[in-house]
Amino acid sequence: MQYKINYIKLNNFNFNEVVDFIKKKNDFFQIIDSEKIISEVQIVNALKKMNRFYEQNKKVKLKENLFLIYISYTKQIEDAIKISGIKYSSVYGIVIYKNEEDFNALLNIQGIEKIERNVPIDNPELDKRVFSDMSYLDLIL
């Protein structure tokens, strides 16, 4: 099953309800703050690196945490959540998931609506940084 990417607007949403929703998902499901993302290239690269690391290191329990680490360029999950995770103040989010039913269920939560893409597919001026930062992270993990 392939990962899917969708965009949401968060408007007076219940933060704790969304966090609880994410925690209850069995398939991969993560929401990140779109203001922290350079491009979809960053997301796709983080997913590739996450999968490769996960397959080689069975100590990792949650792919979602590993994804946040790669997307945030930090080796500490607490820092990754602060950098890229959604917050009470988040306005736009990016949802990365596998199960379409999970995404549709998210849209039933009050204050969450699907929107069109709000980050570029690629950003040639900054994508080089994405690759170098994630490569560095590979070295220190």
CATH level 1 class label = Alpha Beta
Count of DSSP helices? 6
CATH fold-type name: PF0523-like
* Tally of structural domains: 1
> Biggest sheet, in brief?
4 strands, antiparallel
Strand content: 15-25%
- The CATH superfamily bears the name CGI121/TPRKB
Low-confidence stretches: none
Mean pLDDT: 92
Number of strands: 4
Query: What is the rounded Rg?
Result: 14 Å
Please state the structural category. Answer: alpha+beta
What is the N-to-C order of secondary-structure elements (H for helix, E for strand)? EHEHHHEHEH
Strand order of the largest sheet: 2-3-1-4
Q: How would you sum up the global shape? A: globular
Which percent range fits the helix content?
40-55%
Task: Write a structural description.
This protein has 141 residues and is an alpha+beta fold. The chain has a single domain (4-140), classed as CGI121/TPRKB (PF0523-like, 2-Layer Sandwich). The chain is 48% helix and 16% strand. It is built from six helices and four strands, in the order E-H-E-H-H-H-E-H-E-H. The chain has helices spanning 15-23, 40-56, 63-72, 77-84, 100-106, 124-140, and strands at residues 4-10, 29-33, 92-97, 112-115. The chain has a four-stranded antiparallel sheet with strand order 2-3-1-4, sandwiched between helices. Helix 2 packs across helix 3 (63-72), helix 2 (40-56) runs parallel beside helix 6 (124-140) and helix 3 packs across helix 4. The longest helix has 17 residues, at 40-56. The two termini are 26 Å apart.
